[in-house]
Amino acid sequence: MKKAILGTTALVAVGAFAAAPASAADKIQLGVGGYMQSTYFYQDGDEPAGTPSRISDRVTQEGEIHFTGETTLDNGLRFGVNVQLEAYEATDQIDETYIFVEGSFGRILLGSENSASYLMHYTSPSPVPMFSADSNNVAPSGQANTTYNNMFSDADKITYFSPRFAGFQFGASYVPDGNAETGSSGNTQFQAPAFEAGLDRGYSVAVNYVNKFGGVDVGVSAGYEQAEVAAASEDQSAYSLGASVGVAGFTVGAGYAIDKDLAGVSDSDRKAWSAGVKYGMGPWAVGVQYSKTTDEPAAGADLDATTWIIGGQYALGPGITVFGGVEIDDNDLTASTATRMAGKTNTFFVGTAVNF
């Protein structure tokens, strides 16, 4: 399967490059965009007895600065670049970074970016920016539920997206090393390939359908990922399904995912699902979103974790939004850690999101 995907992509690319002599009328000029999000939140937790006291409130920030540009060659091929600078460094200063080529054959992307299955997924809508019950990005209690296939995250990969035909689009990614992301944690091009560790020689495939029927917008998706696990007898795999429907100001969506044989351990699985509804009219939007994750280890009891997001937002002007609400997290953990809260936690938040 992996060889077939790579072979098809290579043939398409060769055909495109050989179509005609290519010379850009203009060199790529980079533009600047991105986003900044800041919140203040207060937490009311119900952690087990003996847990050290925590600071009850916090200011959180998240943001990126995007450098993007593209040009069209004389033969019609479009080349572009995307470099995303983290506003707040964690494990890497540069987030996604890639080059793409696009034509009548579709789009080929090379570099650090999420997989085809992740990018093409539909799921429940969050009523607010930044916080979501279906995301692994912001987790005020350390609990993150998601139905996005995220086995490879931003590891360097080759991804192909087909043109959309009758509402359908196909995507596929190949990931040689699931731990390799250029510029992250010491990964550079001035070294030999890494020893086998974690997820290697993985792939991701996905299809989605997008259409409009009168005043109804519909999006449906399905995805699959698989990779070898070093020193394990089982491959790790993941499936996802999702749908979103918009009509008369309402957006209703749901997502489902299952990760099989985590870390190559047979019958060690994780299931997640999410559902939500959002209503927006003019500058206002309100909604509610729910998700649940169940860890099913090969040995031992299952572990459930649920998240509710209830909130709203108001657009003050182009690219400027204020928002607020509450996130309710609950799980079966019997002990907290420094980064994960056990039991039930209520997080009340207000914030501002700026897109530029």
Alpha-carbon distance between the two ends: 41 Å
- What is the count of helical runs? 2
CATH superfamily: Porin
What average pLDDT do the residues reach? 90
Number of strands: 16
Q: Could you list the spans in which at least 5 consecutive residues all have pLDDT below 50?
A: 1-22
Structure description:
- Strands 1-2-3-4-5-6-7-8-9-10-11-12-13-14-15-16 form a 16-stranded antiparallel barrel.
- With 356 residues, it is mostly beta strands.
- Mean pLDDT is 90; it is low at 1-22.
- The two termini are 41 Å apart.
- Helices cover 6% and strands 54% of the residues.
Chain-wise SSE layout:
Elements: H1 2-17, E1 31-46, E2 57-72, E3 78-86, E4 94-103, E5 106-112, H2 116-119, E6 156-161, E7 168-177, E8 199-213, E9 216-229, E10 236-247, E11 250-260, E12 269-281, E13 284-296, E14 303-317, E15 320-331, E16 344-355
Antiparallel strand pairs: 1-2, 1-16, 2-3, 3-4, 4-5, 5-6, 6-7, 7-8, 8-9, 9-10, 10-11, 11-12, 12-13, 13-14, 14-15, 15-16
